[in-house]
Design brief:
The protein is an alpha/beta fold. It contains nine helices and seven strands; from the N terminus they run H-E-H-E-H-E-H-E-H-E-H-E-H-H-H-E. Strands 3-2-1-4-5-6-7 form a seven-stranded parallel β-sheet, sandwiched between helices. The radius of gyration is 18 Å and the shape is globular. 43% of the residues are buried. The structure holds NADP nicotinamide-adenine-dinucleotide phosphate. NADP nicotinamide-adenine-dinucleotide phosphate binds at residues 22-29, 46-49, 52, 74-77, 103-106, 126, 161, 163, 206, 208-209, 211-213, 216. Residues 22-29, 46-49, 52, 74-77, 103-106, 126, 161, 163, 206, 208-209, 211-213, 216 line the site of NADP nicotinamide-adenine-dinucleotide phosphate.
């Protein structure tokens, strides 16, 4: 670090920053909300089901560190909802956004030949179009935050949550994998385009994580089949276990910190070694 650069405390600090995290009522998104808020970030989040959000808000308000989290019910696959979400975040967060985390996502399991036009359109809108459009909508707010002084250590951040399915192929996940592979490349493209704006864009690609994603995606699965799928996956994971949402949230949080001020355009796998296994 330059002689007059930020101190160690400043490099590992997020207090006073603001963030919009999509899909914060469950799983990885909820862990990201709680981790960022725990570091003193004012977080606005969203999910489709308002009852789940209200339950989260009730729990968060009972915890001093998380009490300032706010939320809006919104379906990120719908253009108008995305516009309303960013407007609500802008109002709640005082017109400034330091961090955007595009986390909300869904999946389905189907052979490519069985995918309908509706299946394809829904997943593209939920996982990929939302990521692009929310980044577009957030850009003026991220720009305002990044140009408010403080040099490289005050860069604002976009973090996308893709998946190792964007790198390795799984039968029945062709559309999901396509959305995640595109998110990986979108990360690199936006990082190159927005470096001049002092906005860093990175991506975390999780392997299998213990969440409710099949239920949230409306998939009804025989528990025995689900168990076999997990066992087959774990046999290929050197660490032989699923990840926990908090293990993804900590990587996201690091990428948002001034400590990561020279990291942009990267897709970082948090996967227990799955993508490096023979
Ligand atoms: N779990 C894994 O093994 C795994 C692995 C790799 C990547 N990922 C990625 O990680 C991200 C989070 O997944 P997760 O496993 O944490 O899933 P999850 O437990 O199902 O949580 C998803 C969150 O996103 C919200 N959400 C879903 N669709 C939405 C929509 N259209 N609009 C607004 N909010 C929406 C959900 O709330 P509502 O249902 O109320 O909308 C929920 O809060 C996804 O992008 C997923 O692809 C997960």
């Amino acid at each position: 670090m330059a002689v007059n650069g930020p101190s160690r405390e400043e490099r590992w600090r997020l207090a006073g920053k603001t963030a919009l995290v999509t899909g914060g009522s469950k799983g990885i998104g909820r862990a990201i909300v709680e981790e960022l808020a725990g570091f003193g970030v004012r977080v606005h989040t969203c999910a489709r089901h308002d009852a789940d959000l209200q339950e989260c808000l009730r729990r968060w308000r009972a915890d001093d560190r998380l009490a300032r989290v706010t939320a809006t019910a919104c379906d990120v696959s719908v253009r108008g909802d995305r516009e309303r979400l960013v407007a609500a975040a802008r109002d709640e967060l005082g017109g400034r956004l330091d961090i955007l985390v595009n986390n909300a996502g869904q999946t389905f399991f189907k052979p490519a030949t069985d995918c309908s036009a509706e299946d394809y359109a829904r997943l593209m809108a939920t996982n990929l179009e939302s990521c692009f459009h929310l980044a577009q909508l957030a850009h003026p707010l991220l720009l305002l935050a990044s140009s408010s002084g403080g040099g490289a250590s005050s860069s604002s951040s976009v973090v996308n949550i893709s998946s190792i399915a964007g790198f390795v192929s799984y039968p029945t996940l062709s559309v999901y994998s396509a959305t995640k592979g595109a998110m990986n490349q979108l990360t690199r493209s936006l990082a190159a385009e927005w470096a001049k704006d002092n906005i860093r864009v990175n991506c975390v690609a999780p392997g299998g994580v213990r969440t409710e994603i099949t239920a949230s995606s409306g998939i009804k699965m025989d528990p025995e089949v689900a168990q076999k799928m997990v066992a087959a996956e774990l046999a290929r994971v050197p660490m032989h276990r699923l990840g926990e949402p908090e293990e993804i949230a900590s990587m996201v949080t690091f990428l948002c910190m001034p400590a990561a001020s020279y990291v942009t355009g990267q897709v970082i796998c948090a996967d227990g070694g799955r993508t490096i296994a023979a």
